[in-house]
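Risk mitigation, structural track. In case the binding assays with fe (ii) ion fail to produce interpretable data, a predicted complex structure has been prepared as a fallback.
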Amino acid sequence: MDIAGLGYCVIGATAPRRWIDFGEQLAGFAAEERNGAVLLRMDERAARMLVLPAATDHYHASGWELRSRRAFEAAKEELAAKGVPFEQATAADCDLRSVGDMICLLDPAGNRHELFHGPTLAPTPFRSPAGVERFVTGPLGMGHVVLPAPNIDETRDFLHDVLGFDVSDYMTHRPHGADGPGMRIDFLHCDNPRHHSLALFEGEVPAGCVHLMVELPTLDEVGRAHDRMERTGARLMATLGRHSNDHMVSFYLATPGGFALEYGFGGLQVDWTTHSAFEFTTVSEWGHDFSIGFGADERARLAAVA
Ligand SMILES: [Fe+2]
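Fallback model:
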């Protein structure tokens, strides 16, 4: 199947309203409350992030977009033919996500993936309470997400063979030196030029997500968010830097969800017809000091996760 991009994400929260403050004052998302849930907008769509009341703060699901009802139905037929179990969403679940139809399934690492088509556009133009001009979405999707996968080979093969993702590049992080144990990170793309819409990290992450990335059209927008972070006292998780593989200039913020938000500019767009997947060996060309926000153990595990 040809997944168009990361359409939305679903987050569980002990106090969903904390995401309103985070979204409006820091990230620049527009928030709306609906029946105890919080919807966050980044563009013309009614919801790019859905925050649902939950017993724990965690990343709940990734919403992957099919471009039409026909493509959505074909995806369901493909899953059935391959014997992959999936669950049909209720009308209420689709309404909350502002999509026409949706199914959900789990990958071998237990990450929840939702396939959908027919997003609803909001009746009013996007206006960021923080004055962000716009986010880079459209055909590239809303950004990328890095998910835990201790069984990374099995999970990557499932995402490739069942959902149609392909490997952009990969690295093995060895925090204890060249002879120490390695932790793999695989960067995967779908049917758009964004360098990766999904990455897998070979480790356990209690919040269900290492980080979520949103992209801005200018470096100035990233700098203004950095100012807002300092003004509001929000927690920096990694300093400004440029990643080696997707060339993103970004910094990382703590979210109320127990995972980080990468706020970036200038992500690489790739022509997949001429691209060869490669292994790379340094996380960043400069910057990205993860010791700022992650503890010693976390730092060792996560420093390599672009
Ligand atoms: Fe990232």
